[in-house]
Design goal:
This protein is an alpha/beta fold and 433 residues long. The protein has three domains: 152 residues, Rossmann fold; 166 residues, P-loop containing nucleotide triphosphate hydrolases (Rossmann fold, 3-Layer(aba) Sandwich); 59 residues, Alpha-Beta Plaits (2-Layer Sandwich). The protein is 43% helix and 21% strand. A six-stranded mixed β-sheet has the order 8-9-7-10-11-12, sandwiched between helices. It has a four-stranded parallel β-sheet with strand order 4-3-5-6, sandwiched between helices. Helix 5 crosses helix 8. 37% of the residues are buried.
Length: 433
């Protein structure tokens, strides 16, 4: 959108769209309004400007048109007034609803799921991300092929049409199913490679800390601040799709850790996308500690937090230690709001990934959470096996060290997974008696 006379005007190089949503009795107007604001931001990211919104109150979606035929006249008028050629619905439409809407409105109709898939298709840079996005797109499109020939002929370019493309959509179902099977095999291979890499990391016993959060919460900015990773950190939705792993040492103890940053979450994240990106998101599920990065300056902070937790549960999160980092406090005007969030959220801290404010508190929490997974014992390592002592120092927390006649005596906390490797060097403790 451009600026004219103090108000936004459409950029005519972008598609113009009408956004539509339903308000149900159990959801307040504010919730619907927030969801449509987010839909507008998603559309902007994909390359369209929302010029009008339509909200319909219903007890349930209309089975034929989702929004009801009476409201279609209003949408049609708005399309004519604004010269828009796209309608975006805030929930996933059934194949029948999609066909009926395009038949009546005679413009391109997409839903929130297709919009998010389209953004992922734009952002995918690596082979892994491209395979995962295409799998999600093909699974979404397969049941929606029937009866879309006429609609497809008028789609042209623009949002909602990236990825597999018109030619592939016109192939028969059998070929699309074959493509889905091929994509799954390729992704399974990537999954196997990632599993092997994780096992190697686990053998080295360096703890893994995963950054999770709503899209654009500042995860990549935090990773860059901590490790100098140089990860793309833009003020846009879904800037990061591919996982980034960087090694870092905690400033107080020198404990080495591996930070993992991966794709951000969002409300109503398509299930096909979660399933397709499972190979990538398993990096999060295997982490020793999760840092939930939250945009404290967002207008719907708590709704975003809940959406992230719901996706984690869908992935099978079983309660690994979780730290909540309320980010962007440098932009907050009301400090009372963040104080209330901190008081109600266990193991939380206020930070600014941009300025570095509050990071000492984050480090302290992380040290404590990582310390909880360590088993402390005393070991005596022969001098000729100094490499073992070096490995213990590298992966554990040394609280005492002395040199005896027979070797190096270390009081050290080691991860459960690696303590057994050096059991023969462990000295008996009072608990063994």
């Amino acid at each position: 959108m451009g600026e004219w006379g103090g108000r936004e005007v459409p950029d005519h190089n972008r598609e113009l769209a009408i956004a539509c949503g339903l308000q149900f009795p159990e959801s307040g107007f504010m919730e619907v309004d927030e969801s449509l604001l987010e839909l507008k931001a998603l559309a902007h990211t994909a390359g369209a400007d929302v010029v009008a919104t339509v909200i319909q109150s219903r007890t349930r979606p209309d089975s034929a048109t989702y929004i009801g035929r009476g409201k279609l006249n209003e949408i049609d008028e708005l399309l004519n007034i604004h010269g828009a050629q796209l309608v975006i619905f805030d929930d996933e439409l059934t194949p029948a609803q999609l066909r009926n809407l395009e038949d009546v409105l005679e413009v391109k109709v997409i839903d929130r799921t297709q919009l998010i898939l389209d953004i992922f298709a734009q952002r995918a840079r690596t082979k892994e991300a491209q395979l995962q996005v295409e799998l999600a797109q093909q699974q979404y499109l397969l049941p929606r092929l029937a009866g879309r020939g006429t609609a497809l002929s008028r789609l042209g370019g623009g949002i909602g049409t990236r990825g597999p493309g018109e030619t592939k959509l016109e192939t028969d179902r059998r070929r699309i199913r074959q493509r889905i099977a091929f994509l799954r095999r390729e992704i399974d291979e990537i999954r196997s490679q990632r599993t092997l890499q994780r096992r190697i990391r686990q053998k080295n016993a360096v703890p893994v800390v995963a950054l999770v959060g709503y899209t654009n919460a500042g995860k990549s900015t935090l990773l860059n601040r901590l490790t100098g990773a140089g990860v793309l950190a833009e003020d846009q939705l879904f800037a990061t799709l591919d996982p980034t792993i960087r090694r870092w040492e905690l400033p107080t103890s020198g404990q080495p850790v591996l930070f993992v940053d991966t794709v951000g979450f969002i409300r109503k994240l398509p299930h096909t996308l979660v399933a397709a990106f499972r190979a990538t998101l398993e990096e999060v599920m295997e982490a020793d500690v999760l840092i939930h990065v939250v945009d404290a300056a967002a207008y719907n902070t708590e709704a975003q937090m809940q959406a992230v937790l719901e996706v984690l549960e869908e992935l099978g999160w079983v309660g690994q230690p979780l730290i909540t980092a309320f980010n962007k406090v440098d932009t907050l005007e009301r400090r009372a709001a963040i104080s209330s969030l901190l008081a109600r959220t266990p193991d939380s801290v206020a930070i600014s990934a941009l300025t570095g404010a509050g990071l000492e508190g984050l480090f302290d929490l992380l040290e404590r959470k990582l310390g909880e997974r360590l088993v402390y014992d005393t070991y005596e390592i022969p001098y000729e096996q100094g490499n073992i002592a070096a490995a213990m120092r590298e992966m554990g927390q040394v609280v005492g060290e002395e040199y005896t006649e027979t070797g190096i005596r270390l009081q050290v906390g080691l991860p459960d997974s690696s303590a057994g490797r050096w059991a023969k060097y462990r000295l008996p403790s009072e608990d063994d008696a």
